[in-house]
Structures are given as structure tokens and as C-alpha cells.
Amino acid sequence: MGVATTRSCRAGRAGLKGALLLGSISCLTACGSNGGNASCGPGTTPIGGICTTTKGGDASPPVSCGMGTVLVGDECVLSTADAGQSVSCGAGTMLVAGTCLPTPADAGQSVSCGAGTMLVAGTCLPIPVDAGQPVSCGAGTMLVTGTCVPIPIDAGPAISCGPGTHLLGDTCVPTSDAGGGATYIVRVDAVTLGADGYTTIPVTIVGTNADGSPSTASLVVATSRPGAGQLSPTTVTLVPTGATVYYTACDAASSTTCTGPVHITVALASDPTTVVAESQEIDLVAQTGVGTDAPCLIGGNVLYLDGDQGSLNPGITTITQGTWSASASSSHVNIQMTPTGTQTGSGWTLDFDTSQLPNPTMMTQVYTMAMRWPFVGAGHPGLDITGHNEGCNTVTGSFQVEKLVSAGSSLTSFTATFEHHCDGDTSALRGCVHIGN
Questions:
Q1: Segment 378-421, tens digit of pLDDT
Q2: Which of 334, 335, 373, 337 is nearest to 355 (CA)?
Q3: How far is residue 335's CA from residue 327's CA, in Å, rounded to a whole number?
Q4: pTM (predicted TM-score)
Q5: Do the strands 141-144 and 171-174 form a parallel or antiparallel pair, or are they unpaired?
Q6: Are 84 and 74 a contacting pair, CB within 8 Å?
Q7: What is the pLDDT of residue 343?
């Protein structure tokens, strides 16, 4: 069998691999297994029928690897991508383990996030509105979950008043230095009043000094808007238990136009223009009933009298202590009480009657055009009030039954307001009475 001797293997196994990389004809095919008939090229020698690199002695390997290969040991192998300068990565890529890969978004300074964005895990994301200082909420607002929202007036520490001021409602107002930084509370028992020019309620004011002791400051009392009523007295000096003034809803001359909200305010007499406290809001509404029962709903049995000069009881009197008795029928209520002490009179009797009306059963409603009981004409309710051992020959007026609970002649609970005129006089005795639970 003949061997083609005109072809030579020039580079042994290393040359063979290089040749393979360059697409040359396989030396292994050329050399085959023809033993000594093979003709190996310079620097190689036939071993086992294969041309291999000559080794040993001073022989220098004449192996020359082709492009894209390098000599490793005695073999031509692929050049690694990061060996020397054989691979140059383009813009936006970087050399990683011999391979050009896209540059990560957070690698060094390769990514620069624009305004309103921030680098998070290699990605430019919108900056949350509560991240650092990108959002600055304006006055009266606060940052909640990334959004500026109005500060609630009861949001505790969200509203912090500065030195020399204190929180009044939802507003920081100056704090006067007088009285050692005392605080004041203004309380009213009614939050809705008829704008009738005569309904009157008590207003309680208490003060506490910075050291916790009761304030004895002198105060000026007023309404938060003009024409909303009158206070009596308008100045008061506190005692350890506080002080009480009386508020009449609306001025009589403007009672038809004074409806709406109002507060009772207090200021130090030494600084009357600086409000230091105010009551809760009172809503003045068009009067549809007779006065208000608020002064009588303070707990227990109460007789509240607010009389003009010339009436049975000039001035304001509240009676809670004394001996009480009451009786009732379906059309009549009688209340008698003897106060403890003589400053509030020797005794009071009140009679309310509906026996002469077309529907004689007493109900919770307003009764007008009253006459003196028991001298009541047909079609009229009856009303009579006596006190201080005094009474009236004739009576005109009105009353409103607010609550009526009875069982037979036993009166369990009764509340009524009244306006009582004696002997045709324009002066009036107004007030309310409550007995029972």
C-alpha cells in the first residue's frame, strides 16, 4: 500500500492545531499511521506515526502559531479575549473574564441619573417625594406618605407653637407674660342657642398658673364677633374655683341678623386685645322655641331664673339645693321647692297647665298665649310662677315642655322653659326648671 510522500506535516501536533484553527488540511490525515514513511517538517519528529514537536537538547521549537492562537507549552491554543490587547471592548461594554459584556448601570460613573431620579440597584428610578429633601412642605402642611397634606388641628405635636405663643384652636397666638404664663379654659353648657336677644346661659372660666396653682388674674370677656350678644359682667377677677359670667345670645336690636357661629373669648385685663382662651363654638340659630333648657341640664334638680328689672326675680339665680316636690296629671304639672338659705327666696311654686286646650293632654311642645293658672280662659294654656312670697294678679307668657315622664300623679322627670310676664308688664321672668332624672 503506497503512502503519499509529497505532503509534509510542518508543525507537528501544535502546528496541526494551529492549522485546524486556520482551516488547513489535517496533518493527521496526511501523516496517517504510515510509520517511517511519513516525512515530518522542521522542528518536528515522527512519534507513533504522528509528527510532534522536537524536544530536548538545544533544539528550539520552530513552531509558529497562526493568528488568533498562542503557544502554550508545545501547543497552539485559542488566544483568551483578555490576553494583552487582543480584545478591545466598545463603548457601553466592559471586559469580564475575557468577554465584552454590557456595562452595569451602577458601575462607577457610567450612568448619570437625571434630575428627579436616583440610582437604585443600577437603575435610575424616580426619587420618592419623602426621600431626603426633595419635597419641602409649606406652612400648615405636613409630609404624609410622600404627600403634603393639611396639618389637622388636633394633630398634637404636628403643630408646635414657638416661644411666647400657645395653641388656641388651630392657631398659635401670643402668650402674655402677665400671670406667669397661666392657661385658661372657657366652658359653656349649650352649643346651640336661639338668636332671640334674651336667651341667657352661664359661661364658666377657670385659670391655672404655670406652677399648677389657681389663677386669680383679672380678665376681659367678649364675643368673637360684634353684634353676637352681650356678656355680663364683661370683666371678672378669678377666684380659686374660677368665675361665672352670663352670655345673652344676640343683641335685641339685631337678633334677626346675628345667626351663625360665635365663641366667647377672654383676655387679660392688662392686655385686652390679646385673646388667651376661647370657648367651643356656639351656633346661634333662629329662635323657634322658648328660651333654652341648657342652664337646667347640669345634673340634679335645677331652677334657673333670669329676670328683668321689675320682674319677680331681677337678675340671674340658679337654685339647686333645697327641698323639692312635684305632682302631675295628664294636663297639669306642679313643682314646689324651698331653697336652702334665704338668699334665693323663701320658696318657689311653678304651675304649667293645658286643661283648657282642645287637646288637653300635655305634650313636649311650645305653648303660647298663656294665662294665669287657675284663671285660664278656653283655648289658652295656663302658667303661674310665684316666689319671694310674691305673685301676679294676671299673667301672660309662654312655655315649652322639653321632657315629660310621669306615672299617674307621680312626676318622674320634667324639663320646661318659660317666659312669664306679670300684670301686663313688659319686663319678663325667663328661665327653666328640671326635676327628676
A1: 989 999 999 988 899 999 999 999 999 998 888 999 999 999 99
A2: 373
A3: 7
A4: 0.47
A5: unpaired
A6: no
A7: 65
